[in-house]
Amino acid sequence: xxxxxxxxxxxPLKNAVSKKPGPYTVETVLSVKxxxxxxxxxxxxxxxxxxxxxxEFIMIGLLKDDGKPLLRAYSIxxxxxxxxxxFYSIKVDDGPLTxxxxxxxxxxxxxxGRKPVGTLVLDALTPGKxxxxxxxxxxxxxxxxxxxxxxxxxxxxxxxxxxxCRHAEELVYGEELVAATKDDELIGDLAREKLIHFTSVTxxxxxxxxxxxxxxxxxxxxxxxxxEKLNPETDRVMICGSEGLLKDVKAICEARGFVEGSNAAPxxxxxxxxxxxx
Length: 278
Ligand SMILES: Cc1cc2nc3c(=O)[nH]c(=O)nc-3n(C[C@H](O)[C@H](O)[C@H](O)COP(=O)(O)OP(=O)(O)OC[C@H]3O[C@@H](n4cnc5c(N)ncnc54)[C@H](O)[C@@H]3O)c2cc1C
Ligand SMILES: NC(=O)c1ccc[n+]([C@@H]2O[C@H](COP(=O)([O-])OP(=O)(O)OC[C@H]3O[C@@H](n4cnc5c(N)ncnc54)[C@H](OP(=O)(O)O)[C@@H]3O)[C@@H](O)[C@H]2O)c1
What we know:
With 278 residues, this protein is an alpha/beta fold. It contains eight helices and eleven strands. The chain has two domains: 24-113, Translation factors (Elongation Factor Tu (Ef-tu), domain 3, Beta Barrel); 122-273, Rossmann fold (3-Layer(aba) Sandwich). It has helices spanning 98-101, 141-146, 150-155, 172-183, 188-194, 212-218, 220-225, 243-255, and strands at residues 24-36, 39-45, 57-63, 69-75, 84-90, 109-113, 130-136, 158-165, 195-201, 235-241, 269-273. Strands 4-3-6-1-2-5 form a six-stranded antiparallel beta sheet. Strands 9-8-7-10-11 form a five-stranded parallel beta sheet, with helices on both faces. Strand 1 and strand 2 form a beta hairpin. Helix 4 crosses helix 5. It is globular and about 55 Å long. The protein starts with 23 loop residues before the first strand and ends in a 5-residue tail after the last strand. Bound molecules: flavin-adenine dinucleotide and NADP nicotinamide-adenine-dinucleotide phosphate.
């Protein structure tokens, strides 16, 4: 698999899809911002009836040349109260959806599923003092919603968002997002008081280099943040990244006595894949 800019264009959806009830609605792209050769952000219209909990994901997509929809799971990267919907996306050069999605522009149309779901929601965690949101790559997307949800700060005294990527340029979206959140009229005061953003890179030198898993295990993360080590008595954890990250952080949590939660049975930590590897 390679990840570079592609030249395909999207199939125009106008008049192609009924706006009557079905598995998806047709929305309009409001803005697009490219961060790197393999990452971009876009914002689309939100139907009045579309309700979700911050942290959930939804199917989005485009019509294929044969007129059939091509949909993929995407975390909604904006909070429940926002008037539009944000997404943060990879560009996979030979990916069926993102080889085309990466070319969307303001005014284009996009398919939006009707049924948001997911486990990275506050409801799936029992109360705690500190919330860790551990992300790699595009796994930061659900946390882009949760760090802008007032309930997150109502439920936790401290919120730690960690983001690890291969290269520093892949951290920029998160850095801009956190800065804007701390500056926000609605949520800024809470975020300035409670939100800590911790970043590291793994494949080039940066202010902090290394995998977050190693830093949790060695105690380096707690030491750098000036807090106690990960502890199920006080801490709750949300994890979003590759399957390898999920497996490793889950093992760290379980070794310390954390219990995995779900919507049906809230507990100490929850996980969600940022993508499925082939
Ligand atoms: C619950 C869930 C939530 C998701 N949320 C997002 C999201 O918010 N943003 C997003 O970009 N993707 C997200 N994905 C992945 C997304 O569904 C697609 O896989 C992605 O858009 C690529 O689609 P594609 O058709 O171009 O390629 P696919 O055929 O779907 O993927 C091809 C290969 O590309 C790689 N890949 C796919 N997605 C990613 C990724 N996000 N990061 C790194 N490598 C990847 C994998 O190796 C994958 O096997 C999510 C997946 C799941 C299961
Ligand atoms: N990001 C890029 O520049 C790039 C470029 C071309 C192709 N790709 C392809 O895109 C796919 C996804 O790449 P990605 O960079 O978005 O995601 P990724 O491979 O999951 O890496 C993202 C970050 O997560 C870290 N990580 C991975 N597994 C981990 C684990 N088990 N525990 C702790 N940390 C872990 C990585 O560290 P490590 O570096 O130590 O693995 C990296 O810092 C891969 O198939 C890759 O080959 C990526």
